[in-house]
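Data deposition worksheet. Section B asks for the primary sequence of the deposited chain exactly as it was used as input, without tags or linkers unless they were present during the calculation. Section C holds the resulting structure in token form. Section D is free text for depositor observations; keep each observation to a single sentence. Incomplete worksheets are returned to the depositor.
Section A, Depositor: J.P.
Section B:
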Amino acid sequence: MREIAPSPYPVVNPVNLYGFDSPEAYAKALTICLQDPQVDGALLVLTPLFVTQPEAVADAVVEVAQHTYKPVIASWMGEREVRKARNVLEAGKIPNYRFPESAVDAFLRMYRHHRNLQLLQEAPPATPAEFTPDKDRAAKLIQAAMSAGQTELDQDICRQLLDCYHIPMIEGANMAEHYPLLFGSRKDPTFGPIIRFGLGGPGAHVYRDWRLGLPPLNIPLARRLIENTRIYPLLCGEGGGGGVKWKSSKNCCAVSPTS
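Section C:
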């Protein structure tokens, strides 16, 4: 890349050709980027100057893009100066936009679509092999409470119920050092069983940081449910906190409440 654009500045992402923007330079730079295994796609931005050749650069980009499976998107900024170049990109089936922000948005939509397809195609077991909850014992605890007419479980029964699913209970926890989380399920008259995860504690109904999922959830879907909450970065240790261990939480979410 230094041979293409010999500037004193470091070569970083995004790559700036710093005036060395001939069609050949664009083609070589694009080829090098696409050959990098850490690069999944390329966005080329051209701002026309008096020495720029928009059409020739577009031809070079089309030629390179025809020999790669990675997506290539272009943003030829301007109007009259780049109108013919945009026609070249269109003919070469290169998505092109007037503004880089629109091109970035297209990349994000592609990423979300790809991620959704991955989740749909994943078919792991409902729970990991090493996770063996004592469902029979949990069912007996709940049945005994219902038979006794209880609508709430006392702390001892809660401890036993959590133990059935290998979820540790912190005794005498200082709430200033821990994050209160809400994890529950209910039966919706329209959708049936629903899992809810998010911020708990006194501020739960103020911040309303909850996400809903429809069981059964596998591990990837449980992970996405957790990641979509606003408290997730704090749980990962951002902001100076210690974070939490996710294994138990994901396993718990991966269990259907009807199990």
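Section D:
The longest helix spans residues 100-121.
The domain at 23-121 is CATH 3.40.50.261 (Rossmann fold).
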